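Q: Sequence in, structure out?
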Amino acid sequence: MSAACIFCKIIKGDIPSFKLFESDKVFAFLDIQPLSRGHALVIPKYHGAKLTDIPDEDLQEILPVAKKIAQVTGAEDFNILQNNGRIAHQVVDHVHFHMIPKPNQTEGLGIEWPAQDTDMDKLKALFEELKSKI
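A: Exactly. Output:
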């Protein structure tokens, strides 16, 4: 836990939340600035700024909890979003996954997807590089 982290304070109960789920490793609550009805955050209790800072065992429940929240909200369409770093739109330096229902074109998450043309030779070289490290 980090004494200065708003999410750690929420986990400890120092800041109130609309808690949806809690286990030994995971905490989930409604977002207080939702993009749509049912927008929730699912966070590991382990404090870490980026996904790569969190031990694997502290991530195992995250997606099942996000899935359950999506189901109970009745969302047919939804986004699961997790950002790492300021230029990737992360605001709170504690790993968190958004479950954002997308009930229509105007509510929920809106994104741009600036796809680029692919150079297959460069893509193959990248594939070989990454595959060798996994």
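The domain at 6-132 is CATH 3.30.428.10 (HIT family, subunit A).
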